[in-house]
Amino acid sequence: MAIDNQTTKLVTGKVRLSYANVWEPQENDSGDLKYSTSILIPKDDKETLRKIKAIVDLLKEQAKAKYNGKLPAKFHTPLRDGDEERPDDEAYANHYFFNASSKNKPGIAKPIGKDPSTGKTKFAEITDTTEVYSGCYSKVSVNFYLFDTKGNKGIAAGLNNIVKVQDGDFLGGRSSLNDDFADEDFDTDDFEDDDDFMN
């Protein structure tokens, strides 16, 4: 059975981004420049996980048809268990995760309310590269597909679009400026006359 992109396309629930290389492409293991992110799905988001499982099952059936009725050995599936694979990383606790990438830059936006005439959500493009980062929460559009490259076979995820829905703690050791200095006292009188700064 042929499977079209609509069948294999998914918009997640609220997920967290990790290793978010969404503004500038990074070179992957094959030497290709790609935009990418790891997508952390809470284990209690049953709906997103159900949709992923349904798509993976469809693609497995397509793979079986392609490879004489059975899946190849070491057939890669995208969804991984954060508790098992990243036991020392607090951000991955009680989450599943998968990686998504694309040669094309993803659309990056935020919701700005409803269009009164259609009732549909309106979006504003995000251009500030500090707004979407490893640790923020988003809904992500991805497309799953079969791959067969250099002897590796399986299912991968293509990164389409990202809609930021909430800030979160930075992942990867970066701290927030506001958090770092929230309890510090600054004498604002010292900064009122910028002209005298160098005098």
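^ that was protein a. below is b, sequence first then the tokens
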Amino acid sequence: MDTTNEIKGDYAPLRDPEHPQLGRFDKPLPCFGCGIGWFSFLLGFVCPLTWYYATILYFGNYYHKDPRERAGLAASAIAALICTITVVITIAVIFL
């Protein structure tokens, strides 16, 4: 077994001459492997401000760095929208 090319704690990049993009996303996602978007979505139920942070990342096209982040960031953006609508309706009912 050749261990000279192994990097401890990281995945080794795959090289395929026919598909040069194949090894681009071999690294695990940040935030315990689920990505910033899904981590923000789950954490948003405790602290909704993380949904707004992920929304800023989504509209800032952060997912172009890693397309695997797109679904989680979009889910957080939708959760932020629902949260905002709920807060606006609640404030309107209380004060009107």
